[in-house]
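U., I forgot to send this yesterday:
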Amino acid sequence: MRTPQPSGVSVELRKLVVLVDGPSFFCTAKGALGIGMINCQGLYDVLVKKIGKGLATAFPPLFTMSPDKALSSEGIAKELAGAGFEIIPASPEHNADDIALKNRISNLDPREIAVVVMVTADRDFVPSLRSLACNGVVVIWVSTRRPEPRDNRSRLPVDVDELCKQGVFQFVDLAQFIGAIKKVPRGSSLTSTPEEPRDDYTKITLQLRNLDPMVHRKLAAEVARLKKEIPGLTFTVDA
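Result:
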């Protein structure tokens, strides 16, 4: 079934909204994606320019964060703000952070919004986002299907995955952007190039001091066995 399109505003004038459920994103990044430090500018570019296709944003991308981190003048909050995110201080207690985002979603006018990029693994956003989708807004659900290393299970809810497969939401897996959103430590190479084949060798010198001739024969037999298993291996026995 074709999604109804809102009337009254030209499609070209409708804008992009990016919403990041901060606690959920950090759990996904550190767990399933194995990202220790976030490249905040890279994350902004992925969400706005790549996933959001560079559409004009209705307002800066929103990022929820616990008040103690959000109000700090240093750390991740400062980096996110510098990259272009608007930080929303909201505690995860009593779902205050989710409520803050859902309130922003409920205030969106489908006639003015073309695309909503929602970064979360929380199914609580389904009703409000589904309502937008039914009114012609393209909803892109951003998470990952990769399993968490602790329990070998994806955090993406089954019902959300099914809605994406049905086409109610579009799904984008953050795993394909790990290189862009992972901060590279200083001193590391930003890009890696395949090593060229090298005509190299490894030289190992073994010396055995033992009065038992059987031990020496055993060592020679083991080296001979390795020669059969490893192409290019050569050895000499000096006894």
